[in-house]
Write a structure and sequence with these properties.
The chain is α/β, with parallel strands linked by helices and 235 residues long. The protein contains nine helices and seven strands; from the N terminus they run H-H-E-H-E-H-E-E-E-H-E-H-H-E-H-H. The longest helix is centred in the last third of the chain and has 21 residues, at 214-234.
């Protein structure tokens, strides 16, 4: 709403937004939590844990203990169901969550959250190899689903999607892995847009509208880009 107030029509009709609000056809409502899920993050995927923590905070508003965050490598390495390292909401000295031991429910749906920015494979060879191995293992595991999140803020390493085809090891792009066969959900820094992005991620993982189509995601990203472009030209 804050951005719309700067557009010519709403400047001339200021009461439209305050009285009628906004109705978006096909818009996302509150996330309907179905079952608890496990969200896996790669330790070398900088920025991914922060997004996972935001998802956990939103999910917890409606249903406590509905989303559990695991280190992907530890999750894959653990063959028993007794306990697993879980990221809990206890801030460490470096601002990241501390690890504590919690029961692991292997029957919960699991999702590898992959945060895409220009640093995704742009670090040391050892870290790249480790993350490549984790991604391969998760794709090969029929009980783990992949969710791609595409950073849009250039200050956070956001870049055009085609850049990932240059940064990513070719074997992950090709068959049988097809890393980019599913459309990535765009995530923005502006709060209103970020909230929509986070809800879209949660809906894909655990909501009743789990089947997000390419057209929905494309329309969302295009609408945001057009609005920002308009405001930039008029500002």
């Amino acid at each position: 709403c804050r951005l719309l107030r700067h557009l010519p029509y709403y400047k001339s009709h200021p009461n439209e937004l305050s009285i009628k609000g906004i109705i978006v056809p096909g818009g996302l409502g509150p996330v309907s939590v179905q079952d608890p899920i496990n969200v896996l993050v790669c330790g070398n995927n900088d920025g991914c844990l922060e997004v996972a923590e935001e998802l956990k905070a939103i999910a917890s508003e409606r249903s406590p203990d509905s989303l559990f965050i695991f280190d992907a490598a530890e999750y894959l390495a653990n063959d028993n169901n007794e306990e697993e390292d879980l990221f809990d909401s206890m801030e460490g000295k470096d601002g990241r969550d501390s690890l504590i031991s919690q029961p692991k429910a292997s029957d919960r749906p699991a999702f590898l959250l992959l945060y895409l920015n220009e640093l995704i494979f742009g670090v040391s060879g050892h870290r790249n190899a480790e993350m490549e191995m984790v991604i391969e293992s998760c794709i090969n595991d029929p009980d783990i689903n992949l969710v791609l999140v595409h950073e849009q803020d250039s200050l956070k390493g956001g870049c055009k999607f085609e850049e990932f085809f240059k940064l990513t090891p070719q074997r992950l792009i090709d068959e049988p892995y097809n890393l980019y066969q599913d459309i990535a959900i765009p995530i923005y820094s502006t709060k209103d847009y970020r909230d929509v992005s986070l809800k879209m991620i949660l809906n894909k993982m655990m909501g009743s509208d789990a089947k997000l189509t390419e057209s929905k995601l494309g329309n969302f990203g295009e609408s945001v880009r057009r609005m920002i472009s308009q405001l930039t030209r008029r500002g």
